[in-house]
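Supplementary Methods S3. Complex input for the copper (II) ion-bound model.
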Amino acid sequence: MKRLLTRVWAGAMVAGLFCGVTLAADAPPAHPLDSLTGTEMSRLVAILKADGKFTATTRVHTVDLVEPAKDEVRAWKTGKPFARRAHLELSDSGTVHQAEVDLVNGKVLSWTPFTGQPALLYAEFMGATDKALTDPRMVEGLAKRNLKPEQVFCLPLTAGNFGTPAEAGKRLMNVPCYVRPTESNFFAKPVEGLFATIDLNTSSVVTVTDTGALPVPGDGWGYTPGEVAKRLGALRPEARPARLEQKGGPNLTLANGLLQWDIWRFHVRADKRPGLVLSMVDVNDGSAWRSVAYQMSLSEVFVPYMDPDKGWYWRTYMDSGEYGFGIFMTPLRNGVDCPAYARFMPVTMPQDSGEPMAIPDAICIFERNIGDPAWRHYEVFAQSPDKPIPAEGRPATELVVRSASVVGNYDYLIDYIFQQDGSIRIAVGATGVDAIKGAAATSMKDPKAAAETRFGTLIAPNLVAPFHSHYFNFRLDLDVDGPRNDFMRMKLVANKTPDGLPRTSMFTVSHDMPVTEKAARTRIDFNAPSMWHFSKHAGAGPLGHDRSYMLMPGGSAVTSLLASDDPPVKRNPYIDYQLWVTQYDANERYAGGRHATMSDGTDTLATWVEKNRPLGNRDIVAWYTLGFHHITRTEDWPVMPTHWFSFSLMPHNFFPHNPALTVRPD
Ligand SMILES: [Cu+2]
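Predicted complex, serialized as structure tokens:
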């Protein structure tokens, strides 16, 4: 059972705990923002032990690098010493503490009791599964469905928080089950209508909900080549491969802890909760390195389902805060997930014991030219029949930094893409297996189908995929030409033309500079479009313009349609606006709050903004949500085609000309 669940839960765990990947002695950190190394994680445990604060029963919920102050990091020079501190949240026999530990001097700097809910432990997931199947009410529910406990496996899911008395003081997970897979797909046979609610604090089953049995689908719905060929007759005929390649190796260099490629340099690490964290993102304008962003990372991922069924309404996951995009990073497959020539890097994540585990190939970095032009022009008027002049143009090459986090059934690809024209594109690719619900209907002609597909799509016989949304909030600490920036909305305004002109209307551009956090909250309005600029304060470029980077939503904006008093929205109120801007605060990192597990909405981006801090000429942070409403379809089954959506950070009057002019023609 443990092995089965482990495979379901995370490739990360498979890689780290069950396939014997042990950490080789790791190199010491080379940069103040480098991830905590495996050696450092072990040393944290040793320091706490020596201080009498770590026993055989201590469990580690969180280990985070405490970043040195921005000024300190910016002023740091290669070869100079730097601080290494870590923040930990630890539980032991019912008590929870947070600690700050100085790794350089081997000291516990602080040790304070903690009253909120720390992040979930791997052992809590496993324990919840085992507990569910030992409860007689669950065994009885299975028996009603002609199933024995050994025929099923169960998945603990975060239960949300709806502010009811029944939830108060508890640490709840809901645990539905599936019939053990007969093929590669672990989600094809839901045991619908039955789940256990477990309080992790007491390790007990609080309730068992049984809303009645539904048929378990017979098909295994595997997706391996053999399984697909068996079901569909054959795979497509063999084809000549069309592959990207890079002869002679990458153009990427590592200097002073920063990756450098083309006109870009930046720092990469991965943290347990957000996954990839890119820092100190600078661009070279031909004569100098200039800052674009101090840091960019995922801040929260919110996935509310839209089915009011007792077994579904609470499925309102905070995939990053509750589960973790770093700890659930998975090994990327050479030639499938990334081009064969990509550079693959492992990441180091803490286990429940505080000791490190390695996830191999968790990040891939590669350049790609997919045959598109960075720019081109064909000079029609220069042509003559005897002397044709070809188009002038440059091939576009971009650098991709990629990871894939698996949260249960979903696989999320996160890409940071650096372009030669000075733009950065941040893309999310959603794939994996839809969350599915058992149903009685086997076709839309079935009389039961109408009621069963009110909140989802029948995607296979006896399987409905409920509708839901995916919201990805990114924390973008933009420092455009330095930390002091202004936020400005460039609004497009409809205007009448002067009398006597054959034209009657044109648009003009007006500037609006919100100087407080509340005024800066911005919704996308297609009837009143605006462009969002982050500019160096009083930092005019060569022509006297503000030197800016513009955040381009790029067709991935969504209106939530959910009420603001809906409990999951209270926990994730940032979805009410696509863009928020705050004054920089090193402690504000996650839009859904520092502690997501059963959070109540009292610590979120929306509550910080109640301070309504001033923004003009300050160090400011942009928080942008992209996402999509997932109206499920048969093509999503048994595994979803990768659905990409993205936004861009684009220079606006930042460079004096097209930065891609200097790209070589060959
Ligand atoms: Cu989806």
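The radius of gyration is 26 Å. The mean pLDDT is 93.
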